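[audit] Reproducing an earlier prediction to check determinism. Same input, same settings, fresh worker. If the C-alpha cells differ from the archived copy the diff job will pick it up downstream; this log only records the rerun itself.
[audit] input (398 residues):
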Amino acid sequence: MQVKRSLPMSLLGANLLLNLLYAALGGVIVPALLENADPVNKDVHLAIVMTASSAMTIAIRPLVGAWSDRTKGRFGRRTPWIVAGAIASAVAVVWLGQADTVIAVAFGWLIAQPLLNVIESPLDAVLADRVPEPARARTAAYYGAGAALGLAVGAVAAGATIDDLGLTTLGAALLLVAGMISFVLLNPDRTVTDPRPRRRPGEWRALWRSRGFSRVFIGRVLVVLGQQMVLVYLLYIVIDRTDQNAADAGRTLAAVVGVHIACLVVGALAATRAARRNRVATVMVATVIGALGLGLPILIPGIAGLIAYAVVSGLGRGAYVTSDLLLLLHVLPSEESHGRDLGYFGWATLLPQAVAPALAGVLLTLTAGSYSILFAVAVVLALCSLPVVAALAERTRA
C-alpha cells in the first residue's frame, strides 16, 4: 500500500484545525467566558463544565469510531463523519461564542466538545487505515506536529482576540468547515468497496485484554492527566503569577503557549528517527523530559518558571506525541476495527480531561489555591507511567 503524497500534509492540516478549536475553546474561551460570567466562582464552574463535557464525549467517541468502521456508501467510511461533525461543530461553536451566563457557557461546551470528537475519531482512523508501517513514523510526526501547531495557533489567536470572543468563534467555525471539506476532497476515501467488518461477540473485551493496547492506554492516561491539570488552569496560573487581569493574562498566556508549542513541534519532529528504532525507549525518554519541565515552575517563581516549563515540557511532550502514537499503531490488535479501537483509545485522553478539572479543584481547595501543587502532582503521574510502558520494551522493539 502506497501513501498518497498529499496525505501526510493533509493530516497535519486537519489535525491542526481540530486542535486549534480545542485549544482556543477549552484553554482560553471557555475559561474566559466563565470569568466574565462569574469571576468569584470561576474555578468551581470550570471544573464542573469540563468534567461534564468530557464525560459525554467518553460515551460518544468509541461509538462514532465503530459506526465509521461499518459505514458504507459512495463517500466511504470516514468521510461522512468528518464532514457532518465539522458542520455540526461549527454551529455549536458559534452559539458558544455568544454565551454570557454560566448555564449558557456550560450548555455550549457540552455540545461542542462531543461534536469535535465526531471529527477526531474517524480522522485518527484515516492514519491507521491508509499508512503502512514503513511510512508511519514520518506520518505520525506530521500528525503530531499538526496537533502542536493547532494548539499554538488556537491559544495565541484566542488570547489575542479575547476581547471579541464572538468574532473569534465565528472565524474558527468557518475555518474548521472549510478545512475538513478540503481534506476529504484532497484525500477521497477509497474503502467504499471494502466489506463491512463483522461484529464478533466479546470483541471489545479482547481489545482490553491486549497487553500492548492496555499498557499504552494506562501510560497515556497518567501522562495526560498530569498535563491536563496544568493546562486547564493555565490562564488562572498566569493571573496568579503576574497579577494581571483576564485580558492581559490572556495575551501573556498566548506567548507562553506559543513558546510551548514551538518546542513541542521541534520535539515531535526530532523524535521521528529515534521512535522508528525503538518506540518504547523514546516514549520513556520523552516522558522524563516532560516531567522535568513540569517541575521547573515549582523551583522558579513568576513568569520565568512558566517560560522554563514551556520550553522543556514542550520538547518532551512533542517527542511523546510522536513516539506514543507510533507505539499505539504498532500494538493495535485488529486491522478491521481501527475506528472502534482508536475510539476506545480516545478515552486515554478523555478520561483525564474529565477527571483533571475536578482533581485539580480539590487540590487547590486543600492547598488554599496553591497552583504549584498541580505541577507537583503532574510530575509524579508522569513518572508513574514509566514502569507501565517499560514492560513492553522487548515485545515492541522495532
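[audit] rerun output stored. Observation attached for the diff report: The chain has 16 helices and no strands.
[audit] end
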